[in-house]
Amino acid sequence: MQKGSCHCGQIAFEVDGDVSQVLECNCSYCSRKGYLLWFVPRASLRITSSTDRMSTYQFNKHVISHHFCADCGCAPFAFGVSPQGEETAAVNARCLETVALDTLTRIPFDGRSA
């Protein structure tokens, strides 16, 4: 299990699984945010804090709910549906407490062309 949060800690979460590779998307949103995305089933992520300070941003096709903290602006995860129809969480690996980012395999994804 991994623990994570936004910068100020108002949004905290736990996620089951071992992260070894992340998707590095070059779309206009992900590249600006610096996301390194780890995809897991939605049921694997549990929000352990209040959601009072959690805001949501959607863009383009409005199918992914990017959640971020209304206080610090940090975006720890997003929720959506996989191409196979499964509810999915995209975890920003940069918001995980104990992950060494330099050990992760980065998979480039051309979201700019999608």
UniProtKB/TrEMBL annotation:
Residues 2-110 form the CENP-V/GFA domain. Belongs to the Gfa family. Keywords: Metal-binding, Zinc. GO terms for molecular function: carbon-sulfur lyase activity; metal ion binding. Pfam families: GFA. InterPro entries: CENP-V-like, CENP-V/GFA, Mss4-like_sf. This is Aldehyde-activating protein.
